[in-house]
């Protein structure tokens, strides 16, 4: 097993009979889906899942998991997802893809949000390696960009893979990919983006993770927050 699979395997052990489990998006989340499905078939576990993206729903169904529509649920027991960056205080950067609205919704609706990643995701501050994805109402993208530039942000609207149009998120938003000055803390960045009108959602997950499982060459380290599980 590589490190991403190892940590996903460990997280799948947290599933219990009767749980509603949120499925993240990405390669580590895919391993989680596979190991969850394996536990379901090996142990006869009765679980329902809810997916953070169409691609994860397709994967889960193909593995034999029952996938429930998010609109049917008000809370879930467990949400397991990867991340692009993780700081020592468990702030996360997520949403490299275009599904961060659903990812944050499920992360916040979960009694436990478990992050699974390899050691390469550890950083000292959010934005150290990656740009911050910010989903915006299409009509507001220039105004939001201007507001953020006043705080020293630099970046632009995301283009599609063919570079012949703008990218559109799973929820019909445009996406700004922005860098912010180093002196802005994770908390301040989260507050700034939460308070900017026109922002639908953003990739900074501040104070949401319950636990982070980090795999490093076959060993797993558990990083905890003060948030009660
Ligand atoms: C997608 C995400 C992913 O969880 C993040 O990009 C990590 O992906 P991977 O497990 O493939 O490294 O936030 O929106």
Automatic annotation (TrEMBL):
| GO molecular function annotations of the record | ribose-5-phosphate isomerase activity
An annotated GO BP: pentose-phosphate shunt, non-oxidative branch
**GO CC terms:** cytosol
By its UniProt entry, which Gene3D superfamilies does this protein fall under? 3.30.70.260, 3.40.50.1360
> CDD domains from the xrefs?
RPI_A
Keyword terms, alphabetized: Isomerase
Query: Could you tell me what this protein is called?
Result: Ribose 5-phosphate isomerase A
Instruction: Name its species.
Output: Candidatus Methylopumilus turicensis
